[in-house]
Design brief:
By secondary structure, the protein is of the alpha+beta class. 65% of the residues lie in helices and 9% in strands. The chain is built from 23 helices and nine strands.
Length: 663
């Protein structure tokens, strides 16, 4: 910095000014590489999702996709706020850390407005560079999102790399809003500060929120009890108790992090043997010193991580719900159920004959047995709701065989004197254990097997509610008919226009005959609606979760990397005292593990019970397999900790390279 002394006291030349801003920008990007990478990724995400907003190709894929711009813009507003928080925090943090340097500029003759302009320009240079790189990366990321969306609709992906000017303009506007708001505030602060305020500004921000005292130790103990109580209440599954539990967890977060710097020393004072075991003294002393000044920040970040986990898990729950419902309903290319006994399928059949090529089809009745014995058995065994069925639903064996052929399932043979259950998979085990013989039409029958392929048994006028009895044809003679249905295998997928025409017939018949609406479903429509719902709801939730994770993890890493010089001096002293590099590396790893684990564990305590309760809300039999509660929680935790681990690794590599003595 010696060349500063040769500047005229009345200012600097524009060339020197530009070189200094550029040098400081490069140093900032290097020292806080995690922050720079995150800003690049932020620009890439914003551009990629803005590309979806302005993509006419994506918006015309299915009904409902016209709401895609609205959903993504709403999510983007939240994401811009999140990234704005990151930039504002990082800018204010860097102003604090560089206050001595900026104060020195005033000492050597620069004016406040020049220093403010210097700080503004170097941060603007970092943001501009990140924006350019982010847009280049975002154009590739948009193609990845486009490929995923087209794959959801079963369409081929033609690669077409290009630049969307509307998406570019909106992304630049978002970034200008984020950076100008953050930098104008810092610029205003610098212009108002005196030399001594800038030089001592860093020290003024080192006070702990709660002073070290005996009362602070009581807060630490009380927060631990609140955390345990809140977790137990969340696990209860009762919504009012869960809300109280969530409040206890929030109080726990703030109390724990604000009192950690006092509670942990008190713990070790009573246990001196543990205090001096291994590197405990070094690890926890450093952590306590750090958390004494950022307790509120750690609590806020823990709450952000909670929102992240809930957002990811909710997206997975919705995806499982959409997929599970569609798989059950869309087992036939075309299905029409009519509940009114006085009506026929003639208007539909006439349209189908003229407009939809059919490979094979079946018009069949669904009967009701004389009692509800099996229904009552299931109600006492599992979570089962019969809905519109007062008695057990029944299907003739010949109709069942034809339906299996239409759905593409292998044939099943029914032995004389036997009946079968066809049910949703969640009822398989209890129905296998149902050993009571039944009698229909004075014909005694025993259980011959249980089958669980999808057979349109969920919602609407379907083949039973979750299960149906398959009996010999003669055993169904004389039974009451619950409804009639039509199922078909078509030569080509039923188009959206054909589905709309069938729904028009449905509406017309219901209005003319003053009856309930019929149940109409097609495999193509269900798959398209599932894809549209995934894009409209699940994609924005993951977009938000990714932004939250990146922002919170970056702020944690900035705080940790800012201590590089302090760690370096500390480890140099420890080396002189005889500690080898392996021990220092182990202490650093342990300290980082505790530091990053502390704000990440409470979200697990809150998020897991929340997701378990959320998975119980859909109707039984939908959230199974890859969409089961355990699978969803495992996937949500896996995604969250995978992204988090990337930031931890970047921080660890940077710290070990900068602070540990050379081997």
């Amino acid at each position: 910095m010696k060349f500063w002394m040769c500047w005229p006291r009345w200012g600097v030349t524009s060339v020197t000014y530009f070189k200094l801003s550029l040098r400081n920008a490069r140093r900032q990007a290097r020292d806080y590489l995690v922050y720079f990478i995150t800003i690049v990724l932020a620009a890439a995400l914003l551009y990629a999702f803005n590309g979806l907003v302005f993509s006419q190709e994506i918006r015309t894929l299915a009904r409902g996709m016209e709401f895609l711009p609205l959903m993504i813009v709403m999510a983007s507003m939240v994401v811009v706020g999140v990234f704005g928080w990151l930039v504002a925090y990082a800018t204010a943090f860097m102003l604090t850390r560089r206050s001595r340097e900026l104060g020195t500029y005033l000492l050597i003759g620069l004016e406040n407005r020049q220093v403010a302009r210097l700080f503004f320009q170097e941060n603007l240079a970092v943001g501009s560079c990140a924006l350019v790189l982010g847009i280049l990366l975002g154009s590739l990321l948009y193609q990845a999102f486009r490929a995923v969306v087209l794959a959801l609709f079963g369409l081929p992906y033609p690669f077409a790399l290009g630049l969307s000017l509307p998406a570019l303009g909106l992304t630049v506007a978002y970034f200008a809003l984020i950076y100008l708001c953050a930098l104008c505030k810092s610029r205003g602060q610098i212009r108002k500060m005196e030399i001594h305020e800038l030089i001592y500004f860093e020290r003024m921000n080192e006070d702990a929120v709660i002073k070290v005292s005996k009362s602070r130790r009581w807060i630490f103990a009380a927060s631990i009890l609140l955390g345990i109580l809140g977790t137990l209440l969340l696990l209860s599954g009762y919504i009012p108790l869960g809300l109280i539990g969530a409040g206890c967890i929030i109080l726990f977060l703030f109390g724990f992090f604000l009192s950690f710097a006092s509670g942990v020393p008190a713990f070790f004072e009573r246990r001196p043997a543990r205090k001096y075991k291994g590197q405990n003294l070094l690890i926890f002393r450093t952590l306590c010193a750090k958390l004494a000044t950022i307790g509120v920040l750690m609590a806020v970040i823990s709450m952000v991580f909670t929102a992240t986990l809930i957002s990811e898990g909710t997206g997975l729950v919705f995806q499982g719900l959409f997929t599970g419902r569609a798989a059950e309903v869309a087992c036939f290319d075309l299905y029409i159920g009519i509940e009114d006994e006085q009506q026929t399928h003639e208007p539909y059949l006439h349209y189908i004959e003229e407009n939809i090529p059919v490979k094979r089809s079946l018009l069949y009745p669904v009967y009701l047995s004389k009692n509800a014995d099996i229904q009552h058995y299931l109600e006492g065994s599992v979570s089962y709701y019969p809905y519109a069925y007062d008695c057990d639903p029944v299907l003739r064996c010949s109709d069942y065989g034809a339906l299996r052929a239409i759905a593409g399932y292998p044939p099943v043979k029914l032995q004389p004197g036997q009946y079968l259950f066809h049910c949703m998979s969640y009822l398989e085990e209890p129905l296998k254990n149902y050993r009571q013989p039944i009698s229909l039409g004075d014909i005694p029958l025993t259980l011959g097997g249980v089958y669980t392929e999808h057979l349109s048994q969920s919602g609407g006028i379907t083949n039973g509610r979750g299960y149906i009895l398959v009996v010999p044809d003669e055993a169904a003679t004389g039974l009451d008919i619950h409804h009639r249905a039509y199922a078909a295998e078509t030569l080509y997928p039923v188009s959206g226009e054909q589905y709309d025409a069938l729904q028009d017939i449905n509406e017309s018949e219901s209005r003319i005959n003053q009856r309930k609406y019929d149940s109409i479903s097609t495999k193509a429509n269900e798959q398209a609606q599932t894809a549209a719902q995934t894009v409209l709801i699940v994609l924005p939730l993951f977009y938000l979760a990714l932004a939250l994770t990146m922002t919170a993890a970056t702020i944690l890493s900035i705080q940790q990397l800012s201590e590089s010089q302090s760690y370096q001096r500390q480890f140099q002293l420890l080396q002189k005292l005889g500690m080898d590099r392996r021990e220092m590396a182990g202490a650093l790893r342990t300290q980082l593990a505790i530091y990053y684990a502390m704000p990440a564990l409470p979200p697990v305590l809150i998020g897991v019970p929340f997701l378990l309760n959320l998975c119980r809300l859909p109707e039984p039999g939908i959230m199974i397999g890859a969409s089961s509660p355990i699978a969803i929680i495992a996937a949500a935790l896996g995604i969250f900790f995978l992204i988090y681990a990337v930031y931890i690794c970047m921080a660890y590599v940077s710290l070990t390279r900068n602070v540990l003595p050379r081997a």
